[in-house]
Amino acid sequence: MTVREIGIVMNGVTGRMGYNQHLVRSILAIRAQGGLELADGRRVIPEPILVGRSEQKLRDIADRHDLTRWTTDLDTALSDPSTLIYFDAQATRAREKAVLAAIAAGKHIYCEKPTADSLAGAVELARAARDAGVKDGVVMDKVFLPGLRKLRRLVEGGFFGRILSIRGEFGYWVFEGDWQRAQRPSWNYRAEDGGGITLDMFCHWNYVLESIAGRVRAVTARAVTHVPRRWDESHQAYDATADDAAYAIFELDNGVIAQLNSSWCVRVYRDELVEFQVDGTEGSAVAGLRNCRIQHRGSTPMPVWNPDLPATEPFRDQWQEVPDNAQFDNGFKAEWEQFLRHCLEDAPMPYDFLAAARGVQLAELGLRSSEEGRRIELPEVAI
Hints:
The chain is of the alpha/beta class. It has 2 domains: 3-141 and 331-352, NAD(P)-binding Rossmann-like Domain (Rossmann fold), CATH 3.40.50; 142-329 and 360-376, Dihydrodipicolinate Reductase, domain 2, CATH 3.30.360. Helices cover 32% and strands 25% of the residues. It is built from 9 helices and 18 strands.
C-alpha cells in the first residue's frame, strides 16, 4: 500500500473554529485513523503547517499536538513545494487577500465562509481559482450534520411529496461580556471588521435551503442590533455596529416559502440550537443538528382550536423519530475528506466558490432588503 504525505497550510488555527473543528477534530483525527484511503487503495496523510499571527499561540498548539511545522509568515508557508492545499479560517476581512495569494502560489483552496464580505469579492475569488486551474471548496458543514443528513434522506426518498414551506429557528443568548464572558469574539459585533449575523448565517441558510428545496430566488429581511453595547476580550466596552439578529422570508424554487430567524439575542426553548420544520403535502419533519422527527399524512391528527379548554393532545408524542441507520462522523471531518478526495482523485465537490458566492449574495441582498424595507429578487451569480 502506497502512503503519501500532503502538506496543508492551515491559516487561522489559533481561533476557536479553526482549532477545534478543523485542526483537532478533522485533520488530526484523519491522521489518528492512519490517513485517508483513496479509491485505488493509496493512503494519504495530511501534514499540517500552522499559520497565524501569534508565535506563542502557534508554538503552544504545536507542542500540545506534537506538530513541528508552524510559522507566522504566510508567504513562507505558501512557497513550500510540499504543500498542496491552503486552508483559511481567519476572520472574514483577512480571508480574501490570503486566498488570492494562495491561488497565485498554485495551491488548491479550502476555506471557511463567507469567502468574502462582498459579492464582488466572492466572485473575484471564484474567477481567480477557475483561471488558475486550482480546485476550490468551501466549508458548508450544516448539511453534513446527522439531523440535516436525515432530512436530506427524506427529501431524496420523496417523503414530503410537494414541499410547501420551511421554518427555521437558530440562535442562543450571547452574553454581553460585562458580567459574564461572551461566547463569541468581539469582531462578530463590529461591521467594520466583517461582523454581523446576516453575513454569518445567511451564507449557511443558502446552501441548507438549496439542499432541501432549491435555489433562493427572493429575500425579504430585517436585520437589527438588539444589544448596542458589548465588552471585548480585554473587558473594554465598545459599540456594537453589526446586526445581532436577522428575520427573513426566502422565496425558493417551485413556490416554496422559507422563514428563518437568526439571533444571538434569544434564549433557547427548543430541543436544539437550530431547528428546521419542513411541511409538505405528504408529510412533515422537524430536524435539528442531530435528531429528526416526522409526521406522515396518514398519521396526522385533527386538532381542534378551542381557547376555552386546556390542550390535552400530546403533540410532541405524535411524531416519529427518524433512525440513524448509519454511523455519522464529525461533519467537518466528513467534508474535509470529501475535499481531499476532490483534490487527489477528482471526486465531486459541489460546495465550491461559486456556491459560496451565492451565499454571500444572499447576505448582501438581505442586508439591502433590511435597509430599503423591500423584497429583493436574486439574479443569477456567474463567473
